[in-house]
Amino acid sequence: MNNYLHIHPEVAEAIKNNLPIVALESTIISHGMPYPQNVSTAREVEGIIREQGVIPATIAILDGKCCVGLNDEQLEYLGQAKDVWKVSLRDMPYVIANKLAGATTVAATMRIAAMAGIKVFVTGGIGGVHRDAQQTMDISADLTEMSNTNVAIISAGVKSILDIRLTLEYLETLGVPVITYSQKEFPSFYSRESGYTSPLSSDSAEEIAGILKTKWDLNINGSVLIANPVPKEMEIPYAKIESKIQQALDEAKSAGINGKETTPFLLKRIAEITGGSSLATNIALVKNNALLGAKVANYLAKIS
Ligand code: PSU
Ligand code: MN
User: Fold this and answer.
1) What would the mean pLDDT of 197-221 be, rounded to a whole number?
2) Entry pTM
3) Pocket residues for ligand 1 (CB within 6 Å)?
4) Helix runs in the chain, H state only
5) What is residue 207's three-state secondary structure?
6) Per-residue model confidence as pLDDT tens digits over 4-56
7) What DSSP state is assigned to residue 4?
8) Tell me, what's the pLDDT at 240?
9) Which residues, 6 or more positions from 31, have their beta carbon under 8 angstroms from its beta carbon?
C-alpha cells in the first residue's frame, strides 16, 4: 500500500509525533468552486488550521500516488487544470493505475486519510441521498464510505440539492452518529435551518472529540458526521435558496445530467443563479468548519 501513498514530509513528521492533523478534500477545489477563489480558499483554510497549531493535509491523486499534503504548485494545478478527474472510491484504481490527476471526493479523501492514519477531515458539504433517489438510485458513495472508515467529517450539513430527510435516515441505517454543533437543528449548508432536528447535538469540541475516541475504542467502525452551521451573518435563508436549488434541479433533469456529473453541475448552476452570493457563503462555511475541525483534532490528539 505504501507504494501508492505519498505523504508530505511535514505531515509525515506530524503523524510520527502524534500531532493533530486535519485532512482536506480536493474535489471542492477542482469541481466545487471556480478559479481563483478555489485556490485562495484552499490556502486560507490551511492557514486557519495552522493558526490552531494543527497540520493541514490536503489530499489528491497525482502521478499514480495518493498525495497527503500538497505543495503550492500542486494546489494551483488542481485549481486551474481542466483535465482533473473527480475521483470517488470506484475511480481510485483507474486514476492511480493510469497516473492521471484526480481530485478526491469525501469518500476517496476519507479512505486515503485513513491509510495515512489521519482521523479528522474538514469539508464544506458531503454527498448524500439525492432527491428522487427512489427512481435514480443516486446515493453518494460518501455515505457508504462513512459506514466503514474511521475518519470524522466536519461539514456544514448537507445541501438541499439532496433529500435531507433520506440522507439522515440512511446515515442512521449505516450507524453513523450525526452531531450538530451549537444548535439542535441540522443545518443545510447555505442555511442554518433545514426543517430537521439533528439526531445529536453538542456545544463543545472537547465533548465531540470524546465521542470520537469512544466510538473507535468500542471498535464501532465508521465516521461521525459533525454538522457545523454556517455563521449567521453569512447564511442564505432556506426559503430564499430553495427556489434557486429547484431551478438547478429542473435544469439538470432537462439536460439529462446523471452519475458523477450531477453534483458538480448543481453546484456550478447554483453559484451562477445566485450571482456569486452562494460562493461567498460557501467560502465562509468552509473556513468556519476548518476552525471547528482543528479544535476537535487538537482535543482528540490530547486524549489519544
Ligand atoms: N457537496 C457540496 N460541495 C461539494 C461536494 C458535495 O456541497 O464540493 C463534492 C464533495 O467532494 C463530495 C462530492 O464528496 O461532491 C459528492 O459527489 P457525488 O454526489 O457524486 O458522490
Ligand atoms: Mn451520485
Assistant:
1) 98
2) 0.97
3) 25, 27-28, 32, 88, 105-106, 124-127, 140-142, 159, 189, 260, 263, 267
4) 9-16, 27-30, 37-51, 72-80, 92-97, 106-116, 133-136, 141-148, 164-173, 205-217, 238-254, 262-273, 277-303
5) helix
6) 999 999 999 999 999 999 999 999 999 999 999 999 999 999 999 999 999 99
7) G
8) 93
9) 84, 86, 103, 263, 264, 267
